[in-house]
Amino acid sequence: MSTSVLKNAFRTSKVWHKLFFILCSDQGCSLTSLYRMSCIKPQTIAAAQKTYFTEVHGLPNISPLVRSVEETPEPIPTTVKGTIPSWIHGSLLRNGPGKFEFGNQHYNHWFDGMALMHRFQIVDGHVTYRSRFLRSDSYKQNSERNRIMVSEFGTLALADPCKNFFQRFLSRFEMIKPTDNASVNFVKYKGDYYVSTETNYIHRVDPDTLESKQKVDWSKFIAVNGATAHPHFDPDGTAYNMGNSYRNKGAFYNIIRVPPERDGPEDTLEGAKILCSIAPRDKSKPSYYHSFGMSENYVVFIEQPIKMDLFKIVTGRLRGKSLNEGVFWDPNQETTFHLIDKHTGKEMPVKYHAKALSTFHQINAFEQDGFLMLDMCCSDDGQAINNFLIQNLRQSGEALDEMYNTMSRPLPRRFVLPLNITSETPLEQNLNTRPDSTATAVCRTKNQVFCTFEDLHGEDLKDYGGLEFPHINYARYNTKPYRYYYGCGFRHLVGDSLIKMDLESKKFKVWQQPDLYPSEPVFIPSPNAEEEDDGVILSVIITPVKDKSTFLLVLDAKTFEELGRAEVPVNIPYGFHGVFNSSA
């Protein structure tokens, strides 16, 4: 096929044209040389890194946790055992994949399943449950044709067999369209609840009925091609988020600010602004990010060596490859922390570097005594995102053990970033003067600081597979010094325990029972709470060994003892994230 034919195909899409321009202007090369470059594999690791792996054998099969289920659109009662405090009044809203096939076509990646929303309503010690599939365009098109019509992260939709040969041939030159299957989280903007993924589409939903109300496109308000499902919030309701854009000048990371005020009931993202744009180290291979950090005065963007090869992504349909095929881990790249002043929108000139690491979720970030503490769950290897194929999650026996044992475990760590760097700051000496801190920060140049972390755990946490899905008392302690965080232990491919960590002692409490797999813990403060851990932890517990045995678990956040559970006679797949809606 000639280069001119390919170029004509590229012009059929504005996004194609922009990304093609970015790639060519970045590399100064022809289409042929771009293709050759895409075949070059990342360099091998120059030196071995200290990475924590496990040696676990006999892991139980969890395939029922990633099976399709039916929705429960009308509320059903639950059976409460123990006591659910009467002061809890509201709804736990959760999101995650709930349908993994249409007809005889199956999704490949855990992230691909159709969004299934859940609501556990708690009133006067009683709990009801309902669930509903998000009526996204992706879901509706797939359902109408009973086949996968819209590509997802790990699944490329095949050409429509109803089209003729020429139409199917031309479809290979189309850009993979972004999905609106918002399966990752519930988020709140201007008082309304939305479900979100990482594309430019979010859906406004009714938090009571879980009905889909409105599809909203970020790109209609600001120049971004997507946004994370993990915004941060100031006390006044101002929301901050991040999203990429692809312009003629290259790819950019963008800090987004959404005001809390609304002009009317139909207001969605009006007033959203790009606070700051950051150029990637390599604009043809920007970093993938799932979330970001925020302190009182700064947004902290972590540019990690999980990379997105834009050439492979935009040519995915042409090559018959899904989006995840363009995501790769480059262990030879350092991690860079960018600080952006929330008030001025200016990126700080000093860049903080660390060894190659990957992170999906931050725990907290706060400023104290001229330092910014950045706490996050991170691994020394970034290949996990491509390990969560559904076929891997459904493995058993030695194959399952091998998959788990080759994955680096996520561990909670703290970086200490000195804020007052000047031309007088001494080079090649540790600037971290905080007592009892083992983290280091060394100036290489006047605008570059290399950092090492300190562990936010003891060695015994490794026996529980590390920790992910972190949560804190967000309303009172986000961007502030804090003592406790909660999360899931991961001695399996999904969370299999709940953990409460005390940062002062590095000791932790655990809730764990055989064959039970908890969701991300959500902290709810008790009325008139005085101490940081006055409240409860909510988590949805599922099991692969008994049918329709889901329950909502309520733990005393202080003692980590079970207070009660609400048993639901339904099956729920293992999900991602959620929030507590105290107004419901």
TrEMBL record:
EC number(s) given by UniProt: 1.13.11.71
Cofactor(s) demanded: Fe(2+)
Protein name per UniProt: Carotenoid-cleaving dioxygenase, mitochondrial
Alphabetically ordered keywords of this record: Dioxygenase, Iron, Lipid metabolism, Metal-binding, Mitochondrion, Oxidoreductase
Keyword Repeat annotated: no
Record localization: Mitochondrion
One cellular component (GO) term of this entry: mitochondrion
InterPro entries: Carotenoid_Oase
Gene Ontology biological process: carotene catabolic process; retinal metabolic process
A molecular function GO annotation: carotenoid dioxygenase activity
Role description: Broad specificity mitochondrial dioxygenase that mediates the asymmetric oxidative cleavage of carotenoids. Cleaves carotenes (pure hydrocarbon carotenoids) such as all-trans-beta-carotene and lycopene as well as xanthophylls (oxygenated carotenoids) such as zeaxanthin, lutein and beta-cryptoxanthin at both the 9,10 and the 9',10' carbon-carbon double bond. Through its function in carotenoids metabolism regulates oxidative stress and the production of important signaling molecules.
Enzyme class: oxidoreductase
Cofactor note: Binds 1 Fe(2+) ion per subunit.
Organism: Cyprinus carpio carpio
One Pfam assignment: RPE65
Catalytic activity: all-trans-zeaxanthin + O2 = (3R)-3-hydroxy-10'-apo-beta-carotenal + (3R)-hydroxy-beta-ionone; beta-cryptoxanthin + O2 = all-trans-10'-apo-beta-carotenal + (3R)-hydroxy-beta-ionone; all-trans-10'-apo-beta-carotenal + O2 = beta-ionone + 4,9-dimethyldodeca-2,4,6,8,10-pentaenedial; all-trans-zeaxanthin + 2 O2 = 4,9-dimethyldodeca-2,4,6,8,10-pentaenedial + 2 (3R)-hydroxy-beta-ionone
Top-level taxon of origin: Eukaryota
Main location group: mitochondrion
Family, similarity comment: Belongs to the carotenoid oxygenase family.
List of residues binding Fe cation: 230, 290, 361, 577
